[in-house]
Prior knowledge:
Radius of gyration: 21 Å
Mean pLDDT: 90
Order of helices and strands: HHHHHHHHHHHHHHEEHH
Strand order of the largest sheet: 1-2
Number of helices: 16
Shape: elongated
CATH architecture of the largest domain: Orthogonal Bundle
Number of domains: 2
Amino acid sequence: MPSARPYLRPTRRTLLIGAGAGAAAVAAPGLTGVAAARGSDVDTVLEWYDVTAATIGVITGPLQVNSSRTWAIAWIAAWRAVTRARGGAPADAALAGAVHEALATLVPARTAELDAALAATLDRLGPAAAVGAAVESGRAAARDVLTERAGDGLDLASVNRPFTPPAPAPGVWQPTPPGFAAAVQAGQGDGRPFLIDDVRAYLPGPPPALDSARYARDLAESRAVGAVESSRRTDRQTDVARFWAQTSLNGYTGALRAAVTSGARVRRVALVALFHAATVDAQIVTYAAKYRDLRWRPVTAIRTETIAPDPAWTPLITTPAHPEYPSGHTTYAGAAETALRTLAGPPAGPVALTSPTAAGVTLTYRDWRELTRDNIDARVWSGIHFRHTDEVGAAVGRRVAAAGLAHWDGRPL
């Protein structure tokens, strides 16, 4: 198996040159808008960030880690290509060539739009021989990374392999109402990470025992504030819950964009690459734990448990079709927070985000930790997780990302 780390060799000192986060996030434009961009004031990093976001689009949970992998491969290739270029137009061309090659290979249905975006970039950069050579260098970098990541177990079929639920028992996960859908992402925990070596080293301990005070407290909270008709949940809490019902990858695309708005080109490209590498690793770890512990969801516990069973209880948000512990959303949030704090520093200004699952709601954040806080609360207010599960997920994500980022350049951060 090829090493996961050789292409992550530029030092952290190089990465941090020109560090500084941007201000407010803006919605990523569609590819048609990107392809129409002209003028010397176009920022090629943001241009191809938005191309990548538009290529991935709005996704569902079963597509998330595969889509995160696409981001990571494309921007690791861009990082390699940019560090080999001499700056200026050739570096921009190398970036565009790398991202285009990776995305066209992994999302072939978008090739026409990607070709148009690349043509727009090259038209702006001009016909110099160095520009053409840099595009080819970027394409070669992408092919190298694609080869190295072949067979990593993060393709859709491997991630979403069939899973047979265990026999019903107290605490044990079962398909959940209303659709009682088959489990998804059962193979995700077997994927090959980008930055860490041993997934097992980052697995959390087991969830609280069913006869523990912590479990009883969390069960009562989820029952009270997570019900679809809850009188305890405020309007703001409902908005936050619905906002973060989107996939984490979509939710953090605007936040990461705010962090790459300004600074040295190589630092910004590396930030995108490392952010997605770290969050992929966190997603692998959390699903390894989910399918190890097979913990039941609140809806199953509340409807069937001997403690005041309520067969009609329904959560605010439909329960995802996979085990409960730990939370995938909060694991991602913890990893994202760590990557952003470590590599970008605090936001330079308020970061305003919107969500495809909460029309008309805008949430504004001034610290990366605030997104993690909202993710922890949101999954309880949604009625789909227990609070301890969310807190453990965030801790796992932070630990995975911190270890991965320390590992990639061979010394502690």
